[in-house]
Structure formats: structure tokens, C-alpha cells
Specification:
294 residues, Multidrug-efflux Transporter Regulator, Chain: A, Domain 2, Methyltransferase, Methionine Synthase (B12-binding Domains), Chain A, domain 1, Rossmann fold, 3 domains, two-stranded antiparallel sheet
Length: 294
Amino acid sequence: MEPTEPLIRIGELSRRVGVSVDRLRAWERRYQVLRPMRTSGGFRLYSRADELRVHAMQEHLAGGSSAAEAARAALAANAAAPADDAAGIAHQGRDLEEALTEFDAIRAHALIDRLVAERGADRAIRDVIMPLLHALGDRWARAEVDVGQEHFASRLIEARLLALLRGSDRAAGPMALLACPPGELHTLGLVGFGIAMRNRGWRITYLGADTPMASIRRAANEVSPALVVLSAAMPTHFANVEGQLRDLAATVRLAVAGAAASRILADRIDAQLLNADPVTAAEAVASHVTNATR
């Protein structure tokens, strides 16, 4: 069967996952985590499945597993994946949405446990959790779910993501400082970004919702982060502190994210714009730093 997705060279795979080419080749040779196809000219080409196995291995490494243990777990998860992955993802999303809208916390927690175990945190966030939250927001806007259902779902998922973010962290890489500006209460995308960054070897200092700018600056002075990320859903929460954002960007590397972030705002305050889903944004940031330090 011909592949239904484009195949990529190892350099592009390295850029996407934030792992050096030499390390990827070692994982391929020692653990068979990568299973490339070869062109008629002998070049290796890698698939989305290879990329996902690398992400799974990174997540297990971040959790304290040895390289051999992480590779075995990544390969086992891949072997257990449903044959029709898109259908499996959709099914898991529907089941979780049903549990949340029915206020069934026990079932929702069990479904999240299974989702993370089978797919890893990155895929769970990117493929199921964030799309589910957007869908619930749309349903609330159409009055198909009420405020109580939306709040129940958001708070339960927030608690689970915060537990992942605050779990065992043996990373020794760069530091990222994450916060929402004053008045901003939407944190889920920011927490997802933090988890994905930690899975790529970054250390995370998470300040959370509604953080005064003075506190953000004080924390930045204390921990000297390689990157500060501020996320907001409401444009006024950036607009109200635009001058302070510009001052902050003059002293640290600053990125803005969330629905309120725009290219115009980022250019005006001299910040980086993160306008992809949390995991894809983390991939881009981590690969940029990896390439810049080679």
C-alpha cells in the first residue's frame, strides 16, 4: 500500500521532534524505534508513525525511564494502537465528551488514564483533549451545553493536565516561564504547552492564571528563563498591559499565545507568536533552540 502521508528525511524529523540526528540514528540502530523506508537511491525516509514513536519515547524519558525502557514502552504503545487510528481517536473523544457532559467524573478520569497510557501525553492533548475543549466551547455558544457542564469539563481536565505538568521532572534543559496576564483565566492551552515542552527536556515554572505583570517580571529575574510565554484568550488582557509586555520583551525572550495573540501584537511588542496548537508550538520552540545550539 502506498503511504497516505508525505515521508521526510531525518533532518526534517530532527527539526520536528527536537532531537539531534545523531541521537535519532542511535535510537534507530539500538532500539528500532524508527522504521524508515528506503528510496531507490538508498535514502531513508521517515513517516508520521516514526515521529509519534519518538514523541512517545521522549515522554517516557521525561518520566524517568531509561532509554531502553522508554523505547520498549513506545514500541508497545505503537503495537497496541488501533488499526484505524483516526477512528480510534474520534471514538475516544466522543466517549470522553459524553462522560464530561454527564458529570461522570469516575468514567472521565478512567478514560483520560487510558488515553494518556495508549497515546502518550502529547497525542492525548493535541488529538483529543484540545479539540474536545474547542467542541465544548462551540456547543456552549450554541446553547447545547450549559455553563455547569462546560465548567465541570474544563476544571476536571485542568486538574489532570496540572498533575501531568507537576509530575516527576528530571529535565535539565532550558527553563520556560509560563503565565496568563492580569484578568486572564483560560489556562488549558498554556498547561498543555508546558507539558509538551517538559517532554522535550525543558524545565517549567508555571505561574498560572491572572498573574500580575510585576510578579511575572520578578519570577523572570529569579529563574532567568530562556523563554517567557504569556497566553490569553481575551484581547483586552494583552492590550491592558501592552507597554509592560514591550518592556518585558526588552529583557527576556517573550512569546505570546492563545486566541488573543496576533502577529500585529507580537510585532508591536517585539515578541514571538505561538499560533499553533500547544504541542505543535512546543515542537517549533524546542527544535528552534536545538538547531540554534548545534
